[in-house]
Amino acid sequence: MVTATNVEATAVNTVAWLSAERTTIVVPVYQRQYRWDIGGCEKLLADIRTVSDTDDRQTHFIGSILSTAADTATDDAELVLIDGQQRITTLMLLVAALQHTVRGDDPELAAELSRVLVRAGDPGRTKLRPHRAWAEVFESVVLDRRDDGDELRDSRFDDNYAFFRSQVRPDEVRRVWRGLQKLEHVAITLGADANAQQIFESLNSTGEPLRDHELIHNYVLMGLSHAEQTEIEQEYWLPIEQHTGESIAQFWRDYLVMTTGREVVVTGGRGVYDAFRQEFPRLDIGTLRAHASRWREYAETYRTLLEPEREADPQIARHLGYLTSFGRGMYPLVMRAYDDYAHSGSSAITLIRTLESVQSLLLRRTVVGLTNDRLVARLCRAREDGDDSLVRAIARITPSDERVRVGLKFTELPHAPYVLGRLADLASLDGLDLEHVVPLAPADDWTGDGTRRWSEYSDDEQNSHRALAQTLGNLTLLEQPLAERAFDRSFPAKREIYAESGVNLTEQLAEVPAWGTAAIAARTVHLSELFLRVWARPALRGIDDDDLTPILDAIRRSGWPRGWEREWDYVEYRGEHWEVYDVKYLFNRIFKRLWADSRESVVAFSARRGGPVYEARSWNGHWDALDDTHHLYMGWDSKYMLTAVQGVLDEAGFASEVFVKYSYFGAIM
Question: Could you give the CA distance from residue 517 to residue 463 in angstroms, rounded to a whole number?
């Protein structure tokens, strides 16, 4: 056998590797800071619990750990960590949390745990030695020797340690320790002549990483027998792929938004896959068949959204086609509505009303300059409470007629061919071009009345015409052969061409004697009233709260990004206006308020999640008292705090009545 000379790779038990008496692991200066958040810790702890409950033959592989021997003659066991810092640091924090939990009650187990953390001959230093810029903070956490004032500091070490302390009860420590002892990794040790950087890049940069839908595929099939895998693949997964094609990743994202009523972040990392695992933590073959049957059904529905011509009802097909003008942002909502129509007996009238309302919402918001991002999850939640609830939710965030009139008068018309086509009641836009009555760049001899040439217009007149050139009043649709003849012609010549058009909105222009800003304004008023009838706002009284974001849709941010102290201008809590600017203050205020208003919800939520309310201050850190016997731990990271706020408000049934108003800082964070 041919062997390598500068690289040694060995499969090892992770805890045994860390517990070796002479092991010391050094994090080099060039390594990035520790960045694992509570979400990563939650997943790791879940994996450890799962493997702990399996038989003794089962282990859990955590990847490879790359190190090289330190260049020192004093300690041949000192390793320089090249790849694996984040995992090893997190494991150390978990072991420290276990050790501190049992050290007063189970000295034998505490001693076992301590061997992972420190060397017997040097108990004052941790085996893992981070970069000196943050080594002091790490050691103060692992060795539990914090100074006065440390409870107020913000660090990932404190956050994740506190999470592990909160989640593992004293009677569960041995179970977690058993799972930890089943972890394995490949220890890759480099010789003196190996190129550490090249090997690091090879491990982390070569090959194409698995995409979300590929990870979902593997997760669904893993653990099944060969016969079961074949069944699921043939009966369910392949039809899902056939229906969704290149859009399969977007399908899974939209499906999860639809089912959870929460936004799914897809940028950076494996957001869709992680959301899928959270929604389906266990998939035995019986449960899998039931879910997979619905996935296949929704995939077939999704194909109709992608290809509206597949729908037999021409009116529904037309509205599905209209919706494509706005992209796929509302697909989670429409997918559920269409599925109810196709499989659950909902009427075509109900579906068309929903499609009309969605178009009105999206178009009106775009006209007045509002974003359509992060709306669909709240609408999916509303629809779960019935069609009336959805209508009210849409009405609440659909801009008023007054705001739309102003937007149509002065701003560029969005989705112009779609808008003009529907205003003209056209069945198709094929063979039609968008026509600017006043050209975007008129020639010097262009005239609107046959008398004054463009070059004779004042600067103010020219600027006024240019400003209105792409607004509703100056736009129309024209057959392509006629558009070629009309290109750059003056208005008197265009009138004769417009008279030949079969588009009613265009033919009407032939009756206008002259074209200028007054004519554009008059046509805008006329078409705006027609616009407001075609894209009507639901006829319900409600608050036009376009700038408020429901608390369940607030953005969860990792760490503490710059500007976090002014993320919001204010918070609306059940009709009250709170001068609350950051998530830490909101977290504290919500839990204190609910402790008074809905204590049972706080207790139930905290018991299920393992915090953030505890009967004792069981570890050092930043605490606040709720009463004499209950304490709120404040040392979490930003994402955990906002998740807890959302969860406890949902538990109390108040989430739909709480909103945040993002500040300038929050909008650019």
Answer: 10
Q: Are 432 and 475 in contact (CB under 8 A)?
A: no
For helices 173-180 and 107-117, angle between their N-to-C axes, nearest 10 degrees: 40
Mean of per-residue pLDDT scores for the chain? 88
Q: Which tens digit of pLDDT belongs to each residue from 18-36?
A: 888 877 888 876 566 788 8
Cβ 233 vs Cβ 289: under 8 Å: no
Alpha helices per DSSP H over 385-516: 387-397, 401-410, 416-423, 459-468, 480-486, 491-498, 504-507
DSSP state string for 292-325? HHHHHHHHHHHHHHH-GGG-SSHHHHHHHHHHGG
Least reliable range by pLDDT among 185-194, 448-457, 462-471? 185-194
CA 218/CA 334 separation, integer angstroms: 28
Concatenating the DSSP letter of every residue in 118-145 gives EETTEEEEESEE--HHHHHHHHHHHTT-
Amino acid, single-letter form, for residue 8: E
Whether residue 127 has pLDDT greater than 80: yes
pLDDT at 268: 58
Nearest to 303 by CA among 320, 319, 326, 325: 320
Q: Where do runs of H (alpha helix) occur along 469-535? A: 480-486, 491-498, 504-507, 517-534
In sequence order, which residues have a C-beta less than 8 Å from that of residue 308 and are 6 or more positions away?
317, 318, 320, 321, 323, 324
- Those residues whose C-beta lies under 8 Å from the C-beta of residue 273, and which sit 6 or more positions away, are 212, 215, 216, 219
In contact, 254 and 195? CB cutoff 8 Å: no
pLDDT given at position 295: 97
What pLDDT is recorded for position 206?
Answer: 47
